[in-house]
């Protein structure tokens, strides 16, 4: 497979069950009379075959990568430092950031190499995982389709979980503001979750990514304003760092790691950004788009986490905006701006899992039912995310749980496995250092997965004092009852 066989002037390329006969215009022959040399074929260069209608410049790609990483997650960093302490948090943010950056690097590097094997100009995340197995060791090739499907569904679940985090954030932000200015109408967080249902269902009916661009642009402006206001309050009257914990208790560290991974990991958007570049060779390397973007991200995340924890200490909440003063109009406006920014971002995040779900099922549904099916699925997903958010409206624990389960797997474990599989027959470096390095990353990912999930779930059960399914049912019923009364 993939080996060319010369027969006259015809070359058999990539022979499989649906073999294609094609002449190869790119080869150069060195044959001479009596020569035993073989035809030298020019190595396939995927960059030369990319046909992007509107490619992004290097600066544009840098902006896109920064935009995907510098979202609402940065406001959760002070809460992450609360679970680590100033010293462990500062060092841990750098270490986790370095590991996340390296995992993105090996994913993109592996994707570019398997594109050469598969003779394809570009691949997405799931395609890269499948191709790594398909062109890897023979015993692992039957797993190619499973790897591709697993990553597809894992990405969809990651974005669906993030939608629940968004709803909790929106609900808590509006409750903070309206409780202050409407004290006669104190509503629960669950009720505010329910009140987001109608606008979210409507905005999620937009199916064309083009029409979501204005919402994304508005969200970016609101995020910048909110971030500036938040920084103003954080750096006003900072207490002494000596008043805060330097090292938190070790059992809390998994919450720190999971929160940082959730905030920093943008693994789902990396491949689309690289695939749309006019000069994709500038994505990796030093200085490259990835290194520059992640250096800025790690620096800003560490800065906000460090000083946000110094400012608010152990009272810091899942999003530092919720700690802003209740009696100041500028602080309250920042909370509303952030809630609106997340509301407008919701539809963009929703697009990713919906696209994957629809790709899987649209061929099984008659065309005349496509519209009603789309409406039903979109409404059902929003209903489910609102119900789950209302059942467990704890932003900090929800963020750490999502980071532990999904992003530690997708952002750390999967890239380590994919590079190992791809390099297995091609060489694992001096003393197999690539294997040992990836085993270390896999262990970190597994620790984050199990320890982070255990601590998060235990915290949720202790806080709400109910089993998960029982709390989900009761929370949904309470949400419906309060909304009907309202």
The total count of strands amounts to 3
Task: Output mean pLDDT.
Answer: 81
| CATH class division of the largest domain | Mainly Alpha
CATH architectural group of the largest domain: Up-down Bundle
CATH superfamily of the largest domain: Amino acid/polyamine transporter I
Q: Which shape, going by the Cα principal axes? A: globular
Low-confidence stretches: 1-39
Number of helices: 16
Q: Oligomeric state of the chains?
A: single chain
Q: Which structural class best describes the helix and strand composition?
A: mainly alpha
Q: What is the terminal-to-terminal distance? A: 66 Å
Largest sheet report: 3 strands, antiparallel
Number of domains as seen in the coordinates:
2
The fold-level CATH name of the largest domain is Amino acid/polyamine transporter I
Succession of helices and strands: EEEHHHHHHHHHHHHHHHH
Q: In order across it, which strands form the biggest sheet?
A: 1-2-3
Membrane topology: Multi-pass membrane protein
Pfam families: Aa_trans
Transmembrane segments: 84-108, 150-170, 185-204, 211-235, 255-273, 285-310, 330-354, 375-392, 398-418, 439-461
Main location: membrane
